[in-house]
Amino acid sequence: MRSIAKIIYKSLDWSIRGRFPEEVKKMVVIAVPHTSWHDFYMGLLFRSIIGVQINFLGKKELFKWPFGWYFRKVGGIPLDRFNKQNKVDRIAEMFQEHDIFRLALSPEGTRKKVEKWKTGFYYIALKAGVPILPITMDFGKKEHRIGNLFYPTGNSEADLASLIDFFKGVEGKIPENS
Predict the structure, then answer these.
(1) Residue 66, class by beta-carbon neighbours within 10 Å (0-12 exposed, 13-18 middle, 19+ buried)?
(2) Radius of gyration (C-alpha) of the chain in whole angstroms
(3) 3-state secondary structure (DSSP) of residue 135
(4) Among 86-90, 115-119, 143-147, the range of highest mean pLDDT
(5) Is 105:28 a contact under the CB 8 Å cutoff?
(6) Measuring CA to CA, which residue among 47, 49, 53 is closest to residue 25?
(7) Buried b (16+ CB within 10 A) or exposed e, 82-111
(8) For residue range 107-138, what is the model confidence (pLDDT) as tens digits?
(9) Between the chain's N and C termini, which has fewer beta carbons within 10 Å?
């Protein structure tokens, strides 16, 4: 599968810049910007090429027949959005339940243009005691750029400003939503 992913990725003229810290078994991976459904398969191609396990969350309705088996197979975890349990707490618990748990999240929380990121990813990492790894989904440059591991300090304002700065100038598949 990895060699097929490499062929597709190269034929699309994409590249990867940076090094994925595969020795780190638990982290929150933020992929920005999230502007299109194309981000999903580009993320799967990226993950196949670097050869690491990265999970993602999806609304539980996606995990029903006929596609549920596929989403689970590619690392998806169903999330009940209507469960009364605090989602940050529940997701942070997932890090304790797995030996390897790299969770990909989109800080925008939607494919539409947003003025401000949702902060759940930050508080999940903080509560779970894991770093955040920023990765671009730059359709303008056709590259995934891997940043440095970022360890949240608890000063959310300063930490978020630093993370947001990493993504300046990055263009999504639908640029007006970037």
Answers:
(1) exposed
(2) 16
(3) strand
(4) 143-147
(5) yes
(6) 53
(7) eeeeebbeebbebbeeeeebbbbbbbbeeb
(8) 987 777 778 899 999 999 999 999 999 999 99
(9) N
